[in-house]
């Protein structure tokens, strides 16, 4: 990620916050503060001005969704607002939708691997959006209820010559990249999979967004998984099993 990303962690469980701090200390991420509930999260965000906030969804009192809304809507400083990455054990559609409507940039489950979490922090810090593949699939199942801005009509272009479906406007390489985005891979991992430099991957993702009239990676994933629900985009195995929940046992190491 280059320059250290300044992160605020928010979770009502001290053990989780300790595990996150211990895990992220070994990376380029700089944990600048912690908060145990939504109200303290708002105050800490305004005071510390982090780049990314790791926000729990369900907490006593003010929820993470409401805290996200207050932080982003009431940001008192000039310049960019922090990016919010929701981190939770729950993947219920209502929370995904509410978090996205509140302005969250990503939504990951707590069984996400440490490597995937660090990559997600880098992705959202760079201004992109990130959803866990399993969460994205649940989002697809509730597709008819999505708010219009999440997948605009422009995301359904006319198919290209000889190619059916909404991905017909993309080249073969762009479709490859789009499918890997839908699997939840970062630019670095896409580059490794396809033998491409990260700048080339980033350029390809930007072309996909332009061609399909989309705004972020989440919309790419939604479109790909809608167009190819049973195809090469199956990513159920990418979430990993040694995530934050498992890392709690090694926090003191």
What are the defining features of this structure?
253 residues, alpha/beta, 6-stranded parallel beta sheet, 11% strand, disordered C terminus
How would you describe what is shown here?
The protein is α/β, with parallel strands linked by helices and 253 residues long. Helix 3 runs parallel beside helix 4 (93-102), helix 7 crosses helix 9 and helix 8 crosses helix 9. The protein has helices spanning 14-24, 38-48, 64-73, 93-102, 114-125, 133-141, 172-182, 187-194, 198-212, 217-227, 244-247; strands at residues 5-10, 29-35, 52-55, 83-88, 106-109, 130-131. Helices cover 44% and strands 11% of the residues. The protein has a 6-stranded parallel beta sheet, sandwiched between helices.
Radius of gyration: 18 Å
The biggest sheet, with number of strands, parallel, antiparallel or mixed sense and barrel status, is: 6 strands, parallel
Beta-strand percentage?
5-15%
The overall pLDDT, averaged over residues, is 77
What is the N-to-C order of secondary-structure elements (H for helix, E for strand)? EHEHEHEHEHEHHHHHH
Report the end-to-end length measured between terminal Cα atoms.
25 Å
The tally of strands reads: 6
Number of helices: 11
User: Could you say which structural class the secondary elements and strand pairing correspond to?
Assistant: alpha/beta
Share of helix, binned: 40-55%
- Spans of at least 5 consecutive residues with low confidence: 146-163, 231-253
Outline type: globular
Q: How are the strands ordered across the major sheet?
A: 2-1-3-4-5-6
